[in-house]
Amino acid sequence: MKKKIQKFLVGGVAGVLMLASVVVVAFAASTVVYDNLPKPIPGNVASLGFQATQTSEFGSQVQLASIERNNPTVTVLMSSWGCESGAWFTNDCASALNATFTHPITLNIYNVGPDDSVGSLITSKTETFTMPYRPSADNTNCTGGKWFDGTTCFNGKAFPISFDLTGASLPDKVIIGVSYNTSNYGPISMGTQPCSSTPEGCPYDSLNVGLNSAPTVGSSLPS
Fold first, then answer.
1. Confidence class for position 22, pLDDT limits 50, 70, 90
2. Which residues pair with 79 in a beta bridge?
3. How far is CA 82 from CA 110, 137, 159, 171, in A?
4. Phi-psi region of 205 (alpha: psi -120 to 50; beta: other; left: phi over 0)
């Protein structure tokens, strides 16, 4: 039986094949075996928000390239829409330069089950990352409360996080999933009280997983 969307959403978003943006590197040989991160990383990318879409885990099924499978490092592109004060949707976002928050993120790698379902867990890693608030609204260069990277206006800010999976060995095909808690979703939801007392709420409710399309190394599955 496939896991429900509230638990795990693989691949498609609104009928369009958009994949979680990840890079998988085999540590021993520094060989990239899967890569669909945009290069260079732009100010922001299309993304999926867990709190907004009632999702607790999101990922992609992939076919790894090469024969290197041991001790991988997995980099995931995230997107932060949270502000220190105000909010992106009220057009008054304000964040100090290089302001950050921390939140635990879990990376799960699964075998592929029957009919492309989420199979047994191969390995899992949870780390607490220091992540950026999105920059303040630039009302000179942008409209709608967006921030300006010098060229383009954005609502969120893209940034990478990396997991060292030393000791793991991966098969040819895997499902890579990202999971974290928000006020109402995740393995253990945080509860709404901490986020309902201020206009800006909690930054993890405005934290998204970055999306991208076709990989440059490896393949997206099912085809």
1. confident
2. 158, 208
3. 30, 12, 13, 36
4. alpha
Place of tokens 């409710």: 205
Instruction: Return the SS3 of 195.
Output: helix
Alpha-carbon span 27 to 114, nearest angstrom: 29
Report CA 22 to chain centroid distance, whole Å.
8
Cβ contact 93:80 at 8 Å: no
Q: Which residues are within 8 A (CB) of 193 and not within 5 positions of it... i.e. 6 or more apart? A: none
pLDDT of residue 18: 53
User: How much is the pTM?
Assistant: 0.90
Span 190-205, pLDDT tens digits: 887 778 778 888 999 9
Name the 3-class secondary structure at 53. Answer: helix
Please confirm whether the linkage preceding 222 is cis (ω < 30° from 0).
yes
DSSP secondary-structure letter at 25?
E
> Using CA atoms, how far apart are residues 174 and 180, in angstroms rounded to an integer?
20
DSSP H/E element including 51: helix 50-53
Length of the chain, please?
Answer: 223
φ and ψ at residue 50, rounded to 5 degrees: -65, -50
Q: In one letter, which amino acid is 31?
A: T
The answer to whether 83 touches 214, Cβ cutoff 8 Å, is: no
Q: Where are the alpha helices (DSSP H) in 83-198?
A: 193-196
